[in-house]
Design brief:
Blueprint (H helix, E strand, L loop, with lengths): L2 E5 L3 H12 L3 E5 L11 E3 L4 E3 L10 H12 L3 E3 L5 E3 L4 E3 L7 E3 L3 H9 L4 E3 L4 E7 L2 E6 L4 E5 L1 E4 L3 H4 L7 H8 L3 E11 L9 E6 L2 E6 L10 E7 L1 H6 L5 H16 L8 E12 L8 E4 L4 E4 L8 H28 L1
Parallel strand pairs: 1-2, 1-13, 2-9, 6-15, 13-20
Antiparallel strand pairs: 3-4, 5-8, 6-7, 10-11, 11-12, 14-17, 14-18, 15-16, 16-17, 19-20
Helix pairs in contact: 1-8
This protein binds flavin-adenine dinucleotide (FAD).
The site of flavin-adenine dinucleotide has 38 residues, from helix 1, strand 14, strand 18 and helix 8.
GO molecular function, one term: oxidoreductase activity
Keywords: Signal
Protein name: FAD-dependent oxidoreductase
């Protein structure tokens, strides 16, 4: 059995955790936020809650389809039965497809919370700031100066800019970080006292500032009040990255009413979130991970596979499988020495 530290508690981390658990390792998760899920996050307001990151998950591969089927059977996720609309400069129209879109119930973070229970320890509100390696073992240092030592291997699942400081002694891993970048996304969350009379529950938008609109309460298991999630497109988000929050909120609200064609109503509650590292700009390595076999240090995350929950999960699993092979090799070599 090895002791393994995973930095981050998003879907890449949880994909890796599942593989390590299968091999009987002892795994500790270190997460800077108060909860698990990373970009598969939910926001709880005073009178409402929303999925403010990933909106749904779907499978493009048989491997992830099997995972979704398993989570569905366990009651962790449910299909979100919608016909998405497409809104562009010309018109708004239904855009049916055969995709099965799943959501975690009763909110997206519920899935990660359940999956993280399989870790030996979950250290939330713990931002790791440095990694130290002595005598074949790793020590993690947090921003409060706490030290967590005795790990045989470390898995880094953060976006590349946050991962780079941890991998400066591994040329290939550092290169992967430096060659990758992420795009931002402004997200506006709205709650209303009455239902909005839109003909759709969710729409892909190809005009103006917005890229996605969804009636959050149309997802299974959600609270009943009228809630909407509005995601700005990457270009607009990038251009407005440093604008003031009131200005961004005002612009997105205006764009929301323009896009839906409804008369403006006063929102009962709203929340604006800036995702600085929302989506990978490029996928640097389609293997899904970068491993330093000598140091037993591995990088993974959606930015090394594809920009989705599926990409993150498969990346974490590929990284853990590669590290597991390395740990087994070391044991065989050690046993033969
Ligand atoms: C607005 C938005 C909408 C999206 N919509 C969809 C969708 O509908 N469907 C879909 O499939 N995908 C969607 N995605 C993409 C999907 O959310 C991501 O691809 C996936 O969640 C990434 O998982 P990850 O584990 O690779 O990274 P993350 O979820 O970012 O996990 C990394 C974790 O590391 C933590 N961390 C960072 N630095 C440190 C540190 N120093 N110490 C400790 N912890 C640290 C972070 O807090 C985070 O929890 C969306 C993303 C966004 C932002």
């Amino acid at each position: 059995m090895a002791r393994i530290a995973i930095i981050g508690a998003g879907m890449a981390a949880l994909g890796a955790l599942a593989v390590f658990n299968h091999h009987g390792h002892q795994v500790e998760l270190f997460e800077k936020s108060r909860g698990t899920g990373g970009r598969m996050a939910s926001k709880r307001g005073q009178s409402a809650s929303w999925d403010m990151g990933a909106q749904f998950m779907k499978a493009n591969t048989p491997a992830f389809a099997a995972i979704l089927a398993d989570w569905h059977q366990q009651g962790l996720i449910e299909p979100w039965k919608i016909t998405p609309w497409l809104i562009d400069e010309d018109d708004a129209r239904p855009s049916p497809d055969d995709d099965i879109r799943y959501v975690a119930v009763p909110r997206m973070t519920a899935l990660s919370r359940t999956l993280a229970e399989k870790a030996s320890a979950l250290h939330t509100s713990t931002r790791i700031t440095a990694l130290h390696r002595h005598d074949q073992h790793w020590t993690l240092e947090s921003e409060t100066g706490d030290l967590f030592d005795g790990f045989d291997a470390v898995v880094v699942t953060t976006p590349p800019a946050q991962a780079e400081p941890f991998v400066r002694n591994s040329v290939n891993l550092q290169q992967a970080c430096l060659q990758s970048s992420m795009l931002p996304c402004w997200a506006l969350l709205l709650a209303f006292d009455e239902p909005l009379a839109t003909p759709f529950d969710a729409a892909f938008v190809h005009t103006g500032a917005i890229s996605w609109l969804a009636r959050n309460n149309s997802k299974p298991g959600r609270d009943s009040g009228e809630t909407w999630v509005v995601l700005a497109n990457h270009e607009w988000s990038q251009n407005c990255i440093d604008h003031t929050r009131p200005w961004v909120e005002q612009q997105l609200l205006q764009a929301f009413w323009n896009t839906t064609g409804l008369d403006a109503l006063k929102a009962r509650e709203s929340w604006l979130h800036r995702w600085l590292y929302a989506f990978p700009d490029n996928s640097a390595d389609t293997r899904g991970y970068q491993l330093d076999p000598q140091q037993k240090l591995v990088l993974c995350g959606d930015w090394l596979q594809s920009a989705s929950i599926e990409g993150a999960w498969l990346s974490g699993q590929a990284a853990a499988t590669a590290l597991q092979a390395q740990l087994s090799n070391s044991r065989v070599t050690g046993a033969n020495a």
